[in-house]
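Module 6 notes. Inverse folding takes a fixed backbone as the condition and produces residue identities as the prediction. Think of it as a translation problem where the source language is geometry and the target language is the twenty amino acids. Below is one complete input and output pair. Work through it position by position during the lab.
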């Protein structure tokens, strides 16, 4: 069994990225909008800020109170869309229920949508066009590419169909000629399906959900799940019992997680290039 080491790959991508951004005559600009004080969101924003600062990006963290109106939020997003020094904008999810997350997300210019979650960018992804792609699925593809694990013709089983992970990953896999099965909470005989996977990607959010009997010998297993337990972070895969069956597996932490933030930084560069071309 070999480890898919997200930390190592992240460092390599960071180094390449540093060389690319040295050629640009101004700092790249990333804005993260946060509504309310959700502690987990604050941790994620801080992670983004740290990596942005490391790369010399201009990072702005705009905080709104929990009771902000949708109108005020949309006005701010519109101002940022029109600010030439802002290359990428993202709204940290989740946002309070009185705000329509779809409306807020779609207010971001597709050129600056570094989370790749606007309907336009999602649509382009489904159509196989070049576009800004959600960071976690992009990170999964990048990790596989680094380890020269070709997906073409392989049976890829994805467990979890969220807009953030499962659905865009299914599109990326299809665009790269994999045969994809996308499973969710209503899938029947899940173990029978997961066992047939050449590559199994799990994004469910339930600690140790994938057990030894659900994985075929020699499978590549990518664990996207992150749950915070009393004794630390835990993935969706029962790593101790599953890893010996795999050809490759991601650890948690240190697998997909480190890839996600660095993909965001890559997306900011892509967003900059998009806007230069338009
Ligand atoms: P989500 O929106 O809650 O989606 C979870 C998916 O799992 C849903 O599609 C759900 O099915 C499915 N599911 C739930 N129970 C199931 C079951 N018993 N059998 C089969 N499928 C089941 O979660 P998410 O945002 O995709 O995140 C998933 C996990 O990845 C979380 O732990 C999250 O923290 C982690 N994550 C990590 C990163 C990273 O950077 N590493 C980034 C994003 C997310 P239904 O659609 O039928 O409800």
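Target side of the pair, the amino acids:
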């Amino acid at each position: 069994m070999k480890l898919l080491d997200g930390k190592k790959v992240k460092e390599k991508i960071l180094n390449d990225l540093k060389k690319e951004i040295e050629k640009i005559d101004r700092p790249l600009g990333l804005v993260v909008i946060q509504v309310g004080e959700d502690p987990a969101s604050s941790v994620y924003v801080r992670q983004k800020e740290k990596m942005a600062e490391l790369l010399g990006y201009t990072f702005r963290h705009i905080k709104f109170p929990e009771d902000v109106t949708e109108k005020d939020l949309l006005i701010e997003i519109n101002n940022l869309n029109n600010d030439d020094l802002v290359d990428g904008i993202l709204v940290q999810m989740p946002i309070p229920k009185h705000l329509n997350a779809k409306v807020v997300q779609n207010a971001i210019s597709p050129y600056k949508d570094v989370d790749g979650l606007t309907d336009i960018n999602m649509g382009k992804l489904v159509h196989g066009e070049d576009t800004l792609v959600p960071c976690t699925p992009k990170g999964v593809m990048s990790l596989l590419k680094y380890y020269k694990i070709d997906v073409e013709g392989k049976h890829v089983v994805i467990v979890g169909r969220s807009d953030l992970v499962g659905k865009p990953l299914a599109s990326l896999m299809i665009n790269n000629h994999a045969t994809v099965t996308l499973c969710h909470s209503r899938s029947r005989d899940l173990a029978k399906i997961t066992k047939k996977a050449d590559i199994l990607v799990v994004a469910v959010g339930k600690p140790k959900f994938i057990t030894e009997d659900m994985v075929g010998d020699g499978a590549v297993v990518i664990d996207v799940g992150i749950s915070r337990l009393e004794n630390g972070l835990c993935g969706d895969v029962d790593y101790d019992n599953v890893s010996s069956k795999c050809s490759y597996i991601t650890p948690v932490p240190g697998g997909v997680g480190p890839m996600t933030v660095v993909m965001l930084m890559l997306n900011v560069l892509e967003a900059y290039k998009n806007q230069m071309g338009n």
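Reference fact for the lab report: Residues 34 and 266 are 21 Å apart (CA to CA).
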